[in-house]
Amino acid sequence: MELRIDRAGVDRCRALAAAVVAPVEEFIAAHSTVSVERAVLRLLGVDGIGADEVPVPNLIVDSLPPSQRDRGAALAFGKAVAETGLDPAALGEAIAAGRFALADFSGVPDAAAHGALRPHVGRALAYIRGRRDERSARLARLPQLRPPLLYVIVASGNIYEDRAAAVAAAEAGAQIIAVIRSTGQSLLDFVPFGPTTEGFGGTYATQANFAIMRAALDEVSESLGRCVLLTNYASGLCMPEIATMAAMERLDMLLNDSMYGILFRDINMKRTFIDQHFSRMLNAYSGIIINTGEDNYLTTADAVDQAPAVLASQFINEEFAHRAGMPDGQIGLGDAYEIDPDLEDGFLYQVAQAQLTRQIFPNAPLKYMPPTKHMTGDIFKGHLIDALFNLTSVMTGQTIHLCGMLTEATHTPYLGDRALSLENARYIMNTARHFGEEIAVKPGGAIERRAGDVLSGCEELLNRVGGMGLMAAIDTALFADVKRSPDGGRGFDGVFARAGDYFNPFDEALRRELVPA
Amino acid sequence: MELRIDRAGVDRCRALAAAVVAPVEEFIAAHSTVSVERAVLRLLGVDGIGADEVPVPNLIVDSLPPSQRDRGAALAFGKAVAETGLDPAALGEAIAAGRFALADFSGVPDAAAHGALRPHVGRALAYIRGRRDERSARLARLPQLRPPLLYVIVASGNIYEDRAAAVAAAEAGAQIIAVIRSTGQSLLDFVPFGPTTEGFGGTYATQANFAIMRAALDEVSESLGRCVLLTNYASGLCMPEIATMAAMERLDMLLNDSMYGILFRDINMKRTFIDQHFSRMLNAYSGIIINTGEDNYLTTADAVDQAPAVLASQFINEEFAHRAGMPDGQIGLGDAYEIDPDLEDGFLYQVAQAQLTRQIFPNAPLKYMPPTKHMTGDIFKGHLIDALFNLTSVMTGQTIHLCGMLTEATHTPYLGDRALSLENARYIMNTARHFGEEIAVKPGGAIERRAGDVLSGCEELLNRVGGMGLMAAIDTALFADVKRSPDGGRGFDGVFARAGDYFNPFDEALRRELVPA
Amino acid sequence: MSRFVKPYGDTMNDGKVQMSFTLPVDWSEAADEAARQLAGKMGFTDVQVVEGRRIATGFSFFVVYASTPQSVDVESIKASSSRAHAMTMEEIDAFVSERIGRKVRVAGACIGTDAHTVGIDAILNMKGYKGDYGLERYRTFETYNFGSQVAAEDLVAFTKERGVDAILASQVVTQKGSDVKNFTELAELLEAEGLRDRVVLICGGPRVTNLMASELGYDAGFGRGTLPSEVAAFVAVTLADRMRRDSRTNGQMLT
Amino acid sequence: MSRFVKPYGDTMNDGKVQMSFTLPVDWSEAADEAARQLAGKMGFTDVQVVEGRRIATGFSFFVVYASTPQSVDVESIKASSSRAHAMTMEEIDAFVSERIGRKVRVAGACIGTDAHTVGIDAILNMKGYKGDYGLERYRTFETYNFGSQVAAEDLVAFTKERGVDAILASQVVTQKGSDVKNFTELAELLEAEGLRDRVVLICGGPRVTNLMASELGYDAGFGRGTLPSEVAAFVAVTLADRMRRDSRTNGQMLT
Ligand code: B12
Ligand code: B12
Ligand SMILES: Cc1ncc(COP(=O)(O)O)c(C=O)c1O
Ligand SMILES: Cc1ncc(COP(=O)(O)O)c(C=O)c1O
Question: Which of chain B's residues have a Cβ under 8 Å away from the Cβ of C10?
Fold first, then answer.
């Protein structure tokens, strides 16, 4: 099934997105955030918690006076490494234990710091590269089933219950497991530590939890003879750090949106833009596929009206990802099946939107989200809406398929709900496997016209955004009817301008490695 | 959605069907059956039951010695009418009461009999014509919703429970109500009398039950502002009589297949052929839409293999109907969604078959039957299979849509099951209302190829049938792998050759009225 | 006079119920039998395990049809409805101007850690819900929408200083009884501040029922599918009644 | 040692169950409450009526989630399986030739007024079921398929005169307990004729369980998804055992 779309229009949208993103990228290059600095320390090997369970990276970064922080945590920390000869992990513990303070080493020449960290930077990048190669090797040995890849969530709040649910789901056909985060973790300005069993509406994203789930899925992957992928959430106040942990624990995907935190969690936009860039360079380097959050536009406003905004956001997310050196193959742009089920021909609009996205981003592993907003306690009807979502997905060749739950309106999925949801997807996608390839849409018909309207609506929106600049556009509620000011929102105090001699060996290395000059 | 089909092949199939049916029609014209004769008496006004609840029409026909019977019950009965001057109803009662025997009037001249019945024949036909006009008037005043027309069954065994269920279903969106017959009624050589409350797996088809349900549906039609149609079953040993009762009680549809009784109920083939012809002339005259039973081929054997047989049966049913003077608009040819849900691309084959049928019989009110055989106790999956059936139906423009039940494998429908089933159909058919019109199938693709294979397979089968003749073909199990011999099966003793002076005023009138010389 | 009803399959009082559940056991014929016995223990008769299958190592899924002997007297159940007074926006505006004679001050929020604002927004925002305009659109209402994750304290403080007439609290997340917890906290805080009688206190959310609301000490509760006008009507009518009552009692005090 | 299990939602022993049913009442908030109370009377706790709506005049439909306090001891349940001995057609043929040394005579039918032959045909016809050949295909089996609506008498009479080794009776229609009625009638007739011990008596159908079969005095019962080879294996093994047993007792009699 191929739509005839206005290719010139698509090119204009891409050009507009580039124009929209360019000034933001200049801003990003000149700034950093506390989370970026903490991520740098984590990459060097700093981990663990100190007094009051404050993570050591937070302790260290918070201990730096602005003048120091602006030059990059790596500089001050590197001096200590040079001087003490300790490796970063040990040094971190020593500082946490109060045996040193970075201030003690301010006298050490910058060059010494640079030199002292060089081997550690190399080791860190080599380790991440190694994890990436491991993933490729496993995927070659235990190949995935063909897409759409069936993706389900676990959200019990207890990592061990989640593990049981994840393994059961994998046996029932799930190809991707996402551990939903505990409510509001995205608003915490630190990453919790260790295995956790108390979460609310989800389970905390911690490095230990990542490792536990990774091990369980590796094991079941062997018994199933196919890789079961692991996903978690980056967007929020700790995007760079979670990207770091995910790289180390060989997660396969991360939710990482350039604007989600701003619009749907009221996180400061500058903070978000800077964080998403660094985290995406890391994602790109570690071979992690990102998932963007366009689905959120549709759960909060009418899906028919919001279609152009979704497409515009996809173009912007794509551009930001490219600027972070991410290849199309890792850019999992989001879309969702959220049109009112009682709208006549709503199915046609869904197909139009899904196919349009597929053709505009041919190499992106598109992430298709299920119906949620219009799901009700009528689980029988809900199961049918999910069925047409499944049909649309296989017809239009979506890549990452988040399975809908018939109990969406009621509770976070039960184990049995997941089994029914996977049965639904497997049945529909098998009985209609090649349907999409066997049909064509009527030229100039309702489906093509709808796709055309969405595309032109998107161009119009991007024009307005370009006119005033992205930050101003968000400030005037051009996205999701939500108004956010450039210096408002959570985490703004963690944003700072880089000093002239700002030092961030990973930022340098990754840019060198990834970003086209 | 339009398939390119081999029109010449279709024409050849029609020609073959005509050749297959022609000799059978000659046989039919030269014979009659006890049920035809009983129908004649019922048309004249004879009704009621005598000793041991034997219906009066049976009493009378059974009382005739072969020599009399072969000349037609109307002749002997007409003589009695001429002689006694009683009207047929009264005469029937008198005979049942033993006050007369037809033998007493053998002396009356044939002409007198013919003359005596003429007014009664006229009155009967006028009455049926009047019922037909009534239907048209109601349909004009309370128009149907657009097809597919949602059809559900009631089957409690108790006509009063059925009535409650039927009204509830109509309110929930049903447009057609079928009262399933009690198991094995089709094997009874008489029609039960009066309202019944004890049925098994269904409710007896009696004229009183027809009237009760008709009244209830007329009432709810008014409150809904749309006609709710009523269906029952004719095929069986009493096809002609049930056709008579249905005409009088203004039913809108009857299941009436030219071979179902033979293949699936082991009713003698000659009996069936003769009965279906007379009953179809009556159906044609009373404006009743027939439903054929091709779905039965698919419940007993593999649906993919049987597709050509289904099409062949449709051609044969069409030809028999035409020969009975029935216009295309009343020929509800059957098909069903019975392919194994776990077959890859099974959905494509279903679409191919449904669309092929639609295009070959453009003016027929096609009757599409739901998945039944592959339905299991997994009601959640069953509901999904029904959903794709609903989608296929609206995509391919089926006319009469028998709604599938998620509990098909478990029990005859509960009231709540029907509501969910109708919700399923309404949701799918609305959200995908114009999908079929908006797509085209890939030329030479899997769907078109499948349709082509079915058509050529059908031609091949019809060729073989034509070669040996229809009766011999059935005798050699060419249909549904079932072998039936020409003189075997139930009801053969009720078949007889018409004497030279055989008299059947309705047969004459209807042929004159309907059948192209 | 009472009327006892049972679930209805295809005959009055057959008591037919459909059930599905997962058992933490590997599938086997014994597992089906276990499901059958379990349904029996629940008090069902005529138990048919129509589906039983493995869904994962150590887990099986079942579909069961059975009859319950239980019945309930529908005449005895009087779940008062909060949607009693149907009025259009125009009628309500007219009613308020006439009977209350000033703007009605309404404060709404999604309280606790709940961030599901779509529901409360549907009631408050101009746009409204299902073609029914939201309270902001009403000429005679002055609405404050605090959005998501609002602490009860803040809402109460605001009520105090601004003399709010009606509080609309929303809870969509119900896990671990968080909704009841948050609603209760708000009601108690208002009591403590001596504000309870001064405001029309309303709660809402997909799992809210009017019954639950009164049990929690609220004036009304609105559940799935609520329309803004239903809420506006309730607020207007309740407020008008109270004012009449109060003026009467005041009158008495004077004499 | 016993192991009590409860339905599993997302946590061990949470007892979560899904239910749906129709009540013969018009929908209202009171109807939802009636559904909630009814579930309570059934012994469920934590009852959530997540859907309740009018489906017709005087009828409402409900979806409920709730927790059951009931549990069942899975260790105590020993539903013996009739599908114990897995063998291929070749193995079974070999087994019969060696251990029985003659063809096994099997008579099958769909008894009573039941006309659902697809099931019994799936077991008997050459073609078989799900790629597993039917008994007619077996070298060592001689099968008679009587098709549909067969009276128990005829089957018994035939058994008597032809010395049938195994009878396969099918029942698909279960309304009003017709299946149990017909199976029982057949078993009793065989008793009366003194043939019961001479044949392997087997019943089957979508609602048949091995447990039910033994309660009805059958040697085995086969339910949904049965494969012909499972049935053939059971017949062969059971017959062989009996012959060994009989020959032994005969041996003793001689001495
Ligand atoms: C949209 C949505 C979101 C959006 C919310 C966006 C936003 N700004 O509101 C996003 C994506 C952010 C989200 C996030 C989460 N969600 Co959420 N979400 C939903 C969803 C899909 C729809 C809710 C909705 O908008 N319904 C439409 C509105 C109009 O209906 P309504 O809320 O019932 O409101 C009506 C009535 O109830 C009434 N009403 C409501 N409030 C009030 C108040 C008053 C005073 C009155 C008079 C009336 C009234 O009037 C409204 C109009 O009729 C539901 C699933 C579902 N289909 O219900 C899950 C759901 C509510 N979410 C859920 C969860 C768990 C979460 C997360 C915790 C998941 C996670 N870990 O990320 C987070 C946490 C967010 C938080 N801190 O609360 C669960 C809750 C489970 C439970 N019962 O506890 C649900 C049921 C999904 C599920 N099955 O898991 N979610
Ligand atoms: C096909 C079918 C028909 C066909 C039957 C054709 C035929 N020659 O068999 C036709 C259209 C004729 C028909 C008619 C009727 N049917 Co019917 N039919 C079905 C249907 C759709 C499928 C049954 C089937 O073939 N299953 C496939 C086979 C392979 O599965 P199976 O039977 O379970 O057999 C397997 C096992 O059970 C086992 N097995 C079965 N028997 C035996 C025996 C032995 C010895 C062994 C070892 C194993 C064994 O092995 C088989 C392979 O694994 C079911 C619904 C459903 N999906 O189940 C309704 C169904 C069985 N029918 C039903 C009814 C009510 C009728 C009618 C009464 C309706 C009517 N009033 O017209 C009539 C009456 C016919 C009669 N006198 O019995 C009801 C029964 C309700 C109940 N539980 O009592 C059902 C459940 C549909 C419904 N929900 O209403 N039906
Ligand atoms: C892009 C993105 N990131 C993160 C999240 C999860 O965010 P939180 O943890 O704030 O609920 C979502 C969920 O919708 C998302 O779409
Ligand atoms: C054409 C036709 N006639 C009649 C019937 C009902 O027949 P019986 O009453 O014999 O079950 C069917 C049911 O499948 C049918 O398809």
Answer: 156, 161, 165, 411-415
Is A342 annotated as catalytic? no
Task: Tell me: pLDDT of C177 over 90.
Answer: no
Which partners does chain D have (≥3 C-beta pairs < 8 Å)?
A: A, B, C
Query: Which residue type occupies C21?
Result: F
Q: What is the pLDDT of residues A354-412, one digit of tens each?
A: 999 999 999 999 999 999 999 999 999 999 999 999 999 999 999 999 999 999 999 99
CA angle D212, D110, B258 (to 5 degrees): 140
- Could you read off the pLDDT of A273-300 as tens digits, one per residue? 999 999 999 999 999 999 999 999 998 8
Active site residues of B: 260, 295, 367
Alpha-carbon gap, residue D184 to D193, rounded angstroms: 14
B66: three-class secondary structure by DSSP: helix
Please give the Cα distance from B302 to B114 (Å, whole number). 52
Q: Token pair of D204, please?
A: 């089957």
For residue D252, the model assigns a pLDDT of 54
Spell out which residues of chain C touch residue A411, defining contact as CB-CB under 8 Å: 175
Compute the distance between CA of residue A311 and CA of residue A462 in angstroms, rounded to an integer. Answer: 10
Q: In terms of C-beta density within 10 A (0-12 exposed, 13-18 middle, 19 or more buried), how is residue D144 classed?
A: middle
| Ligand 4 centroid – CA B233 distance (Å) | 6
Separation of CA B53 from chain center: 26
Name the residue of B200, B263, B373, B414 whose CB sits within 8 Å of the most ligand 2 atoms, as the mutation to test its pocket.
B373
Degrees to nearest 5, angle at CA D104 with D101 and D108? 175
Task: Find the Cα–Cα–Cα–Cα dihedral A162, A164, A168, A170, rounded to 10°.
Answer: 60
Which one of C172, C175, C199 would you pick to mutate in the ligand 1 pocket, going by the greatest count of ligand atoms within 8 A of its CB? C172
CB C130 near ligand 1, within 6 Å: no
Which of B269, B289, B285 shows the shortest CA–CA distance to B43? B285
Cα dihedral B444, B448, B453, B456 in deg (nearest 10): -90
Contacts of A407 in chain D (CB under 8 A): 65
**Distance of CA A265 from the midpoint of ligand 1 (Å):** 15
CA atoms of C142 and C162, how far apart (whole Å): 11
Q: Annotated catalytic, A373?
A: no
Q: What is the pTM of this model?
A: 0.96
Whether residue D56 and residue B412 make contact (CB cut-off 8 A), yes or no, is no
Q: Give the other-Cβ count within 10 Å of C170's Cβ.
A: 31
**Type of residue numbered A394:** V
Instruction: Please report, as a single letter, which amino acid is at residue D49.
Output: V
CA distance between the termini of chain D: 46
Assign A371 to helix, strand or coil: coil
Burial tier of C196 (Cβ tally within 10 Å: 0-12, 13-18, 19+):
middle
Could you say which of C8, C9, C63 has the minimum Cβ distance to residue B378? C63
CA distance B30 to B324: 15
CB-based pocket (< 6 A), ligand 2? B 155, 180-181, 183-184, 201-202, 264, 296, 299-300, 372-373, 375, 408-412; D 108, 113-120, 122-123, 129, 168-170, 172-175, 202-206, 222-226, 231
Query: Exposed, middle or buried, D244 (CB in 10 Å: 0-12/13-18/19+)?
Result: exposed
Q: Which helix (H) or strand (E) is C167 found in, with range?
A: strand C166-170
Please tell me which of the candidates A156, A377, A412 has its beta carbon nearest to residue D50: A377
Q: Inform me whether the C-beta atom of residue B67 falls under 8 Å from chain A C-beta atoms.
A: no
**Separation CA B250–CA B252 (nearest Å):** 6
Distance CA A81, CA A118 (A): 11
pLDDT of residue D255: 43
Amino acid identity of B194? Answer: G
User: Distance between CA B276 and CA B283 in Å, rounded?
Assistant: 10
What Cα–Cα distance (Å) separates residue B394 from each residue in A395, B33, B405, B426?
18, 41, 17, 10
CA B182/CA B199 separation, integer angstroms: 5
